[in-house]
């Protein structure tokens, strides 16, 4: 065993071309050497184990080679190269600033700098982890770095570029080394394994490469460890066992259960994982990575970002096809929240369990309309949109809320004098059918809007108002009577959920002060998730908005404005088929807002019987 050399050393690249995954950098360096345009100081930045020191050594060897070949590489046969290869060259000095960071160490180095090389043309000084030099050492070094002798070249290497003083940075040519890609590392490991006569599975090498996180040195040392553990037969099963990596099968299975909202199965899988000794937060990190991988495998464009072995790619593609992007975004967000809260959480296991349950319920929310995040739903047109010219609707039906008019009547709004009522249409001709408020941002306040409408109305050419409905009409609940003015066709334009809510809010804002409580209720409905849903009626295809209220009394209360609201929305949304109903929430969809973890937990117990049983079986408790 005395001649055993670790792979990281044995397979350390000796030429620019063999440096893995940094071809852009090595080409630049080669070109600099070939053209003789050498700087006196270089700064190599990048994570550990990506080839900074290796490249520096190759650089030192190549610039001293007496007869470099036509590819710009060192010849490996001249006196200088042989000395380099036998590690007895005096033209290279390495200082590890992590352990030698004092002024004396730097002084010693500076003395060496003054001595010209015996063989070759340059002396190369490699200072590793240069950010570790003490302030005094830095200052001592600065002078030499500013005015080095012609034969001296400094290569400073660091993993933490931000710690390098600007005075140093400005004197160096800076090269940024990238983290290596998994595929590059796997390729290299394959070569090493072939060379050593090991048998291996690609998925096993992939696990090693991922574990190394972009560093070749780490990858090779893990590789050595695994190779000796498996006696040269590197299988996936043995690698995950040896490295204590969680099998990706778990992630696939768990995602499967989540997609089925099979919460008991999710909990049992989690239990199995934790009982194997895996940390819950590492597991969540892995799960988040799995969701991310699913997300990138959904789109051919992002597919290259998927860094997994060829053998599992298909599995990712297959599972990704059954996940909606919305589910994946939601799941990633929840995993991220869990990660953020993990440290502070007193019951970490419960936090993870809750997160998984929430992920599982993402799909339920998707299925149930009106629950979860409000979707930007667009209702399909039922008829072709009516020609704009015929659409002379009462642009701004004044509201006569108390009497809940069923038939068109002249405005005599008892609750609000005409002067203060929202009655722009009274004093000016109704605006053009292409009503501007359909495009205004929903944040615009009502007064502004009124002003705008007024302007539009006033700038209309005279005479076009002839077909206009009288703005004073209180529209009724039925489509037939809603428009007081002659209208040739029913309007059935599409509108988005946001537009609907926007007009709903405007209606609420324009209600007279005597209807403050109704206005308040309307606003709450519009702002709370899940309170209002719009569907196209299965039988007629007509858009039907359902607003949930807490109880029958509230429903009665709201029905006072139902007709006026319907008319208003039909008019402003330009869809005469729209119906609105206030329904008592029987399915408990109105959320009692849960804020604290205890409330969330309580709600989950109430909502999900399976979870409740599990909580009892596993004796789950909030700490
Ligand atoms: Zn040579």
Strand content: 5-15%
Q: Mean pLDDT, nearest integer?
A: 78
Ligands in the model, by name, code or SMILES, are: zinc ion
How can the largest sheet be summarized? 5 strands, parallel
Q: Could you say how many structural domains there are in total?
A: 4
Total strand segments: 10
Summarize the structure.
Helix content is 47%, strand content 8%.
Task: Give the secondary structure arrangement, pairings included.
Blueprint: H1 7-10, H2 23-35, E1 41-45, H3 52-64, H4 79-85, E2 92-96, H5 103-114, E3 123-128, H6 135-146, E4 152-158, H7 166-169, E5 173-176, H8 182-196, E6 199-200, H9 202-212, H10 216-229, E7 233-234, H11 236-243, H12 248-259, H13 263-275, H14 280-297, H15 310-321, H16 325-342, H17 348-367, H18 424-427, H19 446-458, H20 479-482, H21 497-510, H22 516-527, E8 532-536, E9 543-549, H23 552-573, E10 579-584, H24 597-607, H25 609-617
Parallel strand pairs: 1-4, 1-5, 2-3, 3-4, 6-7, 9-10
Antiparallel strand pairs: 8-9
Helix pairs in contact: 2-3, 5-6, 8-9, 9-10, 9-11, 12-13, 12-14, 13-17, 14-15, 14-16, 16-17, 21-22, 21-23, 24-25
The structure holds zinc ion.
How would you explain this protein's 3D organization?
The protein is of the alpha/beta class and 623 residues long. The chain folds into 4 domains: 7-176, 3-Layer(aba) Sandwich (Rossmann fold), CATH 3.40.50.300; 182-243, Helicase, Ruva Protein, domain 3; 248-367, Up-down Bundle (Zinc Finger, Delta Prime, domain 3); 388-461 and 468-584, no CATH class. It is built from 25 helices and 10 strands. A 5-stranded parallel beta sheet has the order 2-3-4-1-5, sandwiched between helices. A 3-stranded mixed beta sheet has the order 8-9-10. Strand 2 (92-96), helix 5 and strand 3 (123-128) form a beta-alpha-beta unit. Helix 21 packs antiparallel against helix 22 and helix 21 crosses helix 23 (552-573). The longest helix is centred in the last third of the chain and has 22 residues, at 552-573. The chain is elongated. Bound molecules: zinc ion (ZN). Zinc ion is lined by residues 65-67, 74-75, 78, 80-81. Zinc ion (ZN) binds at residues 65-67, 74-75, 78, 80-81.
């Amino acid at each position: 065993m005395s001649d055993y050399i670790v792979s990281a050393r044995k397979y350390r690249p000796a030429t620019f071309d063999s440096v893995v995954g940094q071809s852009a950098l090595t080409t630049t360096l080669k070109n600099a050497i070939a053209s003789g345009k050498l700087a006196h100081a270089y700064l190599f930045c990048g994570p550990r184990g990506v080839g900074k020191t290796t490249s520096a050594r190759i650089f030192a060897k190549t610039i001293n080679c007496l007869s470099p070949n036509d590819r710009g590489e060192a010849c490996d046969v001249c006196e200088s190269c042989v000395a380099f290869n036998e590690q007895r060259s005096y033209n290279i000095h390495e200082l590890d600033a992590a352990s030698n960071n004092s002024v004396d160490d730097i002084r010693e180095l500076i003395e060496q700098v003054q001595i010209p090389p015996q063989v070759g043309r340059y002396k190369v000084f490699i200072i590793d982890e240069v950010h570790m030099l003490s302030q005094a050492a830095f200052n001592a070094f600065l002078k030499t770095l500013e005015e080095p002798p012609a034969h001296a070249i400094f290569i400073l290497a660091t993993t933490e570029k931000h710690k390098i003083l600007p005075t140093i940075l400005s004197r160096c040519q800076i090269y940024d080394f990238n983290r290596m890609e998994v595929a590059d590392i796997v390729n290299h490991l394959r070569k090493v394994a072939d060379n050593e006569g090991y048998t291996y599975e690609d998925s096993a090498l992939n696990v090693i490469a991922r574990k190394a996180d972009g560093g070749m040195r780490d990858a090779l040392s893990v590789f050595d460890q695994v190779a000796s553990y498996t006696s040269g037969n590197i299988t996936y099963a043995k690698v995950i066992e040896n490295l204590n990596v969680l099998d990706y099968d778990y992630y696939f299975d768990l995602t499967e259960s989540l997609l089925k909202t099979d919460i008991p199965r999710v909990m049992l899988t989690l239990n199995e994982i934790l009982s194997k000794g895996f940390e819950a937060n590492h597991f969540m990190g892995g799960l988040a990575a799995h969701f991310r991988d699913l997300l990138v495998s959904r789109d051919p464009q992002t597919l290259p970002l998927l860094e997994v072995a060829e053998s599992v790619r298909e599995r990712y593609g297959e599972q990704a096809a059954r996940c909606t992007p919305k589910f994946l975004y939601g799941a990633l967000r929840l995993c991220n929240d869990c990660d953020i809260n993990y440290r502070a959480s007193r019951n970490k296991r419960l936090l993870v369990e809750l997160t998984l349950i929430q992920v599982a319920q993402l799909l339920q929310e998707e299925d149930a309309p009106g629950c979860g995040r409000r979707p930007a739903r667009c209702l399909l047109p039922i008829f072709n949109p009516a020609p704009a010219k015929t659409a002379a609707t009462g642009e701004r039906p004044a509201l006569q809320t108390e009497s809940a008019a069923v038939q068109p009547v002249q405005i005599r709004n008892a609750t609000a004098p005409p002067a203060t009522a929202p009655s722009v249409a009274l004093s000016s001709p109704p605006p053009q059918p292409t009503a501007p408020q359909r495009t205004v941002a929903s944040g615009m306040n009502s007064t502004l809007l009124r002003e705008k409408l007024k302007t539009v109305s006033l700038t209309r050419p005279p005479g076009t108002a002839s077909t206009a409905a009288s703005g004073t009409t209180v529209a009724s609940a039925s489509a037939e009577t809603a428009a007081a003015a002659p209208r040739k066709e029913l309007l059935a334009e599409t509108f988005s959920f946001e537009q609907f809510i926007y007009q709903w809010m405007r209606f609420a804002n324009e209600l007279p002060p005597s209807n403050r409580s109704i206005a308040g209720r309307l606003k709450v409905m519009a702002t709370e998730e899940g309170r209002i849903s719009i569907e196209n009626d299965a039988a007629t295809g007509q858009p039907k908005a359902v607003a949930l209220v807490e109880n029958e009394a509230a429903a009665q209360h709201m029905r006072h404005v139902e007709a006026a609201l319907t008319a208003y929305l039909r008019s402003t949304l330009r869809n005469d088929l729209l119906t609105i109903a206030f329904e008592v929430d029987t399915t408990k969809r109105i959320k009692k807002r849960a804020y604290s973890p205890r409330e969330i937990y309580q709600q989950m117990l109430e909502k999900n019987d399976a979870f409740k049983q599990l909580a009892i079986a596993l004796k789950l408790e909030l700490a």
